[in-house]
Write a structure and sequence with these properties.
single chain, alpha+beta, Immunoglobulin-like, 2 domains, about 10% helix, elongated, HSP20-like_chaperone, ACD_IbpA/B, stress response
């Protein structure tokens, strides 16, 4: 009987706040890794904020593939229509339906997709909004003057 090595994240839960989603992603990745490895794919980092997923989908036409992004999940589905060319004596080309899910980080969006020579390529780009980017705070000269806070009491109407 094969033994699975799963990491226990319980000690990390005790000393971290707000990382629940990350731990869930890691747990899900451990479970999914052993389930299915078809179709094979690569994830390539092209630049600082550019990525590409390349998936081997030989035998699938563009009309057989469906790519959707909903929030932080990219779903690639493939469903071939059965062709009745004759009786198969040997069937070695996998043409079964598939659904592959990719968890995307925040602010990652799909730019485009293309199918060339049986390789589906999906281009991704991370675009961090200006408000989320680090900004430099200038240190000014002079004294720091704090204006006193005044609390106005509600006026009683007689």
């Amino acid at each position: 009987m094969a033994m699975r090595n799963e990491l226990d994240f319980a000690p990390l839960y005790r000393s971290s706040i707000g990382f629940d989603r990350v731990f869930n992603l890691l747990n899900n990745a451990q479970r999914l890794q052993a389930i299915d490895s078809w179709p094979p794919y690569d994830i390539v980092k092209i630049g600082e904020d550019d990525y590409r997923i390349q998936m081997a989908v030989a035998g699938f036409a563009e009309a057989d593939l469906d790519i959707t992004q909903e929030r932080n999940v990219l779903v690639v589905k493939g469903q071939r229509t059965e062709e009745k060319d004759g009786e198969y004596l040997h069937r070695g080309i996998a043409g079964r339906a598939f659904e592959r899910r990719f968890e995307l980080a925040d602010h990652v969006r799909v730019e485009n997709a293309s199918l060339t020579n049986g390789i589906l390529s999906v281009a991704l780009k991370r675009e961090v909004p200006e408000a989320m980017k680090p900004r430099k705070i200038a240190i000014g000269e002079g004294s720091f003057q704090q204006t006193p806070l005044q609390i106005e009491a509600e006026r009683q109407v007689a």
